[in-house]
Structures are given as C-alpha cells and as structure tokens.
Specification:
Largest sheet: 7 strands, mixed
Mean pLDDT: 94
Structural class: alpha+beta
Helix content: 25-40%
Strand content: 15-25%
Amino acid sequence: MAVEILNERFVVQGRTLASIREINRLPDPIKQAIYRTLIPDFLLERYGIDPLTLSDPEGRPLVVMDAPPGGPDVEIRIWRRLDDRDPLVYLHFAETMHNRIIVLLFMTNDPESPRFDVDRDWQGRPTKYGVMGRNIEAEIAAMQFGLAPGQVRRGLRLTKHMLPLFERFIARLGHDMFLVEPLAYHAAILFERYGCGYIRGRAKMEWIHREFQPGGELYQRLDGSTPFRQPGMERTVRGRSWAIYDGILGEPFDGVQMYKRVGHHAGICTFPDAIW
C-alpha cells in the first residue's frame, strides 16, 4: 500500500482521501507519509534529522505523530534531541463535526534561546496560559526579552514556510479552506498578515484597536498599575497582547475564529502600520 498524489489529491489504493479520520484509519507508515508532507525539508536538515526515518543518527525517532486510529485529530511534535524540554515544532489540528479542518495550536521553539517558565507557576504547576495560575516574575522577564504571552522561548519563524505546506495538504484533501483558533491577540494579528479572515471576532479586534487609540477606554487603562499595563504598550502588537493577557479587557480574549482560503489572501488588517 502506498500514497499516490493524483491530480493534486491524496490517493491510497485507488481511494481519494478527504478527511483526517480517513488518514488516521490507515496503517502507520502510510499515515506518517501523508503527515510528513507538512514538514519542511530544510528544518530536518538544519537539525540533523533523517528525512526518511525522521530519526537521529542512532535511530531514535525525533518526529512524533499522535494520530489515533480513526480519530479526528493529529498532534505533530518535532524534536532536536529527545532530552530537550520543548519541541522545535508543535502542531495540533483536527476535523470538526462539519468536516472542516481547524488548527488548534501551532508553536515553535528556538532551542538555543533562553527559556522562560511562563507555563509553570512558582510551585511548578501548569498555568494553562494564565487560566490556572501565573508566574509573574517569568512573564516580566519574557516580556522584557521580547516574547509575546505564552511563549517560553523565541520562535523559529516557520509560519511563512509551513503555511504553504499546510495549504497544499488541505487542497490534497479536497478542501478549499481551513479554520484557525488564535489563542491570543498577537496570534490573530499574525494570522491576518498571512491572509486569514474572520468567521467571528473581527468587530472585537477592531474595537480593541479603536480603544487603544489616545483617549480610548483601553488606552486609559494603561495606567502603570501592573508591569503589563504601562503607557506606550498600545503602540506594539506585543504590548497590546501582554496588556490583554493581563486582563485589561475585563474578560478573556476569546470568541475569535479565523479562516484561510487556499491560495487567497483575505486582505484584512485590524492594526494598521503595526509594530511587532
């Protein structure tokens, strides 16, 4: 059994695939070959990962694909070394009840950069992106280093390389779009830059921009009351995102869902002339 790409579609034993569930029902080698198309070759080369076995020189697997048989989702982790604390890449996407594919989380970590333990509180418990707790000291250090909320390390700037691969993957399943769940304000702005539009939440994003203007409600809340609410933070994407993470909206950042059409840039910008 082998994967064929006919007319830009995934085909296995004459059957054209159209869903994550169908892929996940396949034998592991075929399933992995399909998901391997999402990984840039240069990334494997950069970190010495064998492009065929996806292993290190000793044969230990450095690419882990968690795709339960017949399940609706897949998690892909790419490691530089097995003893690293964080993967180089983490990608989690799933299939909705309406047969749409949605990216739930995508993050990258530069293993050579300093790590900030914003994902753990002072007792070592998971913070769950600030929902279960916070590590203020680590957050301040991360912010001063130039990171955005939720980042434990500097990223690898892979979005522009992996997005075209993901779009091609989506097209090979016969889809013309996919969904994205931005977990933070800066993520939504980043997805805008790469051509995503809004299914819901655009009015909220425009309200945020408007109220960060001089005299606006959010602008006035940048009163220096916390390290994350300093005057001037409205001028950058990261500054706004830290203030929002700190609760300046008076509610969590949610209710935002985006989409990306294959080969199409939505042309939406809710923060004109933004500085990162």
